[in-house]
Design goal:
The complex is a heterodimer of chains A (322) and B (310). Chain A is mainly alpha-helical and 322 residues long. Chain A has two domains: 71 residues, no CATH class; 237 residues, MetI-like fold (Orthogonal Bundle). Chain A is built from 16 helices and two strands. A two-stranded antiparallel ribbon of chain A has the order 1-2. In chain A, helix 6 crosses helix 9 and helix 12 runs antiparallel to helix 16. Chain B is mostly helical. Classes of the chains: A mainly alpha (322), B mainly alpha (310). Chains A and B meet through helix 2, helix 3, helix 5, helix 6 and helix 7 of A and helix 1, helix 2, helix 5, helix 6 and helix 7 of B.
């Protein structure tokens, strides 16, 4: 079939070769195998990823489930106005930014530090063991991780016991019952869970550094810290820059599971983030329009952030997200 | 990988003449790393110890890394509980089916968008990448799933997350970095795209497909939110993670003394909520912990490709 088509193509004088739309469809027919392998999934993508965007109209309606679209009552920007006057919304927005900020800064600092430490380990087996162990929490589900974290922070848990024995506290503490403590706890949990995993990319970048640089530095009498500071860190700077910029695009993505699973009535004012706001209004109070309004807000702001981040990366001549 | 070994041996060679400062550095560094391992592992090992310790005895506290009174009662209880067994079965099923379908379908799409001559290449690529930026959100997605009749169906665990953009990009980068002539020479030999994909592209992509399989498998096994959202009133479709989440829900810091639902009412006096929770935590995490160390070589590479695309 294919060879016959090609034969027709080559034997036709150039001026008579099909152009434009006709040529496109002819190519499409020729590549029908590729089309069959991809177009069904584009349809899947359309249904599961693009159709829901249509649901954004709910934010502009007094949506009543079960009624057909034409009978829904339009509400203009009422729900957005309500949201922007809702103290709880601003609280969750603050929590979202603070927690993704913690995630970003702490995540970077700890991962780079651990990568530097691992890079100095000469005993290969020891290094592998540390790496394997440090990846473990990343593979635990948040349900499992939150369960473990709750157990160790429990009044009868190990943390209370250590602090009591060291004489740092006089009575057992309810760590998850104090709102102000939620952010530090969140930071510690995130580091515990992801620090090992986040080193992968830095360690990979470190292996790309030219070994002769280290030799030259040694000739000049540079010690371990000097070599880290003047060779290793500058060597991974491009990777750090790209990851930092890209992460700015995800500032509204502070995660959902840790806050939801470790949150409770007592720390709610500090643990609740935008995703939980969307969930509480949507699933628990059936206030669909307000929930969707918050989703729309989040997506639009994220889009702007990502777009900006990507452009900054492009301008700096670093690699881009796509 | 080759570069890594060269560098490591270099380091070792130059490290022969160690100064005092060097040795102090090493001692401090190794000590800190050992401490890090202990802090990372302790919470998990403690849970493991509690799961093998007599439930009544655990209440006394003081279980650290080793059970005081060994028992298998907790595991016996968990595996004799019909709803936990059913949930485990659903977890296994969604992990296996989901992973196979995701890997296969992602590889197929990735192959097509790695073909430079494909007329729809740009269109398909952009259609997928755009979804990284825009998302319908919780309620619109929920309404769609309801309209599609997927509520109360096993397939709600499979279809919505069938292809992830990250996986797609990782596989495409891998295929594009295969030696050019391999796929081309297959073409010249008269193999169509289906043949090229199945008999050349798929086998050659094993490393990246193993990575994607691991990521997908872990994601499927660890999921609980879709169960909560779509199937919380269909008990036969519950998963292990969701069952665990339900048992944890009642153990908020504020409500320590909360009665532990029906589970305890049904049980003999041999088990306690704490012991059951610990045991379920182990059951829900052991499969992954047994697998990931063996795939380390692959996922490290996969992260490198996906993390920074050049």
């Amino acid at each position: 079939m294919d060879s016959k088509l090609m034969h027709v193509d080559t034997s036709t004088p150039l001026s008579l070769q099909p152009r434009g739309v006709k040529r496109f469809f002819r190519l499409l027919w020729k590549q029908r195998a590729l089309v069959l392998m991809s177009v069904p999934f584009v349809i899947w993508l359309f249904v599961f990823r693009y159709v829901p965007i249509w649901g954004w109209v709910i934010a502009f309606q007094n949506f009543k489930p079960g009624k057909p679209f034409t009978e829904q009552q339009w509400a203009g920007l009422k729900h957005f106005a309500y949201m922007f006057n809702d103290e709880r919304f601003w609280l969750t927005l603050r929590n979202t930014f603070v927690m993704s900020g913690i995630n970003l800064v702490l995540g970077f600092l700890t991962a780079i530090t651990l990568a530097l430490m691992l890079n100095e380990v000469r005993h290969i087996v020891f290094k592998r063991v540390v790496q394997t162990v440090s990846y473990l929490p990343h593979f635990l589900s948040w349900v499992v991780a939150a369960g473990i974290v709750r157990a160790i922070l429990d009044p009868d848990g190990i943390i209370n016991e250590i602090l009591l024995r060291l004489g740092l506290i006089d009575e057992k503490l309810l760590f998850l019952g104090v709102g102000e403590w939620f952010w530090p706890i969140y930071g510690a949990v995130i580091v515990w869970k992801e620090v090992g995993w986040n080193t992968i990319i830095y360690l990979a970048a470190m292996t790309m550094i030219d070994p002769s640089l280290y030799e030259a530095a040694e000739m000049d009498g540079a010690g371990r810290f000097r070599k880290m500071w003047h060779i290793t860190l500058p060597g991974i700077r491009p990777v750090i820059t790209v990851l930092l910029i890209m992460n700015i695009g995800y500032l509204l993505e502070s995660g959902f599971e840790p806050q939801y699973l470790l949150g409770n009535g007592l720390n709610m004012r500090y643990s609740e983030n935008l995703d939980i706001y969307v969930l509480r209004y949507g699933i628990e109070q059936f206030n669909y329009p307000l929930s969707v309004a918050a989703s729309v807000f989040k997506t639009v702001v994220s889009f702007v952030l990502l777009f900006t981040a990507n452009n900054i990366a492009k301008r700096l001549g670093e690699t881009r997200l796509y | 990988m080759a570069e890594m070994t060269i560098k490591e041996t270099n380091h070792r060679r130059t490290g022969y003449r160690q100064s005092l400062g060097d040795r102090i550095f090493d001692v401090v560094n190794y000590t800190l790393l050992v401490l890090l391992m202990i802090v990372t592992l302790y919470p998990y090992l403690n849970t493991l110890a509690v799961s093998f310790n007599d439930a009544k005895d655990s209440i006394r506290g003081g279980i650290y890394l080793w059970p005081r009174i060994w028992t298998l009662e907790n595991y016996k209880f968990v595996f004799e509980n019909a709803s936990i067994v059913q949930a485990t079965w659903i977890s296994v099923l969604r992990t296996v089916i989901g992973t196979v379908l995701t890997v296969f379908c992602s590889a197929m799409v990735a192959y097509t968008i790695s073909r430079p001559e494909y007329v729809l290449r740009k269109f398909v690529t952009i259609a997928f990448i755009l979804t990284m930026y825009i998302n319908g959100g919780l309620i619109p997605n929920y309404l769609l799933i309801r309209e599609l009749g997927l509520i109360g169906s096993f397939w709600v665990y499979i279809w919505p997350g069938l292809i992830g953009v990250f996986n797609l990009i990782v596989i495409r980068s891998f295929i594009e970095n295969l030696p050019d002539n391999i796929l081309e020479s297959a073409k010249i030999d008269g193999a169509g795209d289906f043949r090229t994909f199945f008999s050349i592209c798929l086998p050659l992509s094993t490393p990246v497909l193993a990575t994607v399989a691991l990521f997908t498998g872990v994601w499927q096994w660890n999921s609980w939110f879709d169960v909560f959202l779509y199937n919380s009133s269909y008990e036969h479709l519950s998963t292990l993670q969701y069952e665990l989440q339900k048992t944890l829900q009642f153990s908020n810091a504020t409500t320590k003394a909360v009665d532990f639902s029906a589970m305890q009412a049904r049980s003999s006096s041999q088990v306690t909520p704490v012991a059951i929770r610990a045991t379920m935590t182990i059951v829900a995490s052991v499969p992954i912990i047994m697998v990931y160390p063996f795939l380390q070589k692959y996922f490290v590479k996969g992260m490198m490709v996906g993390g920074v695309k050049e």
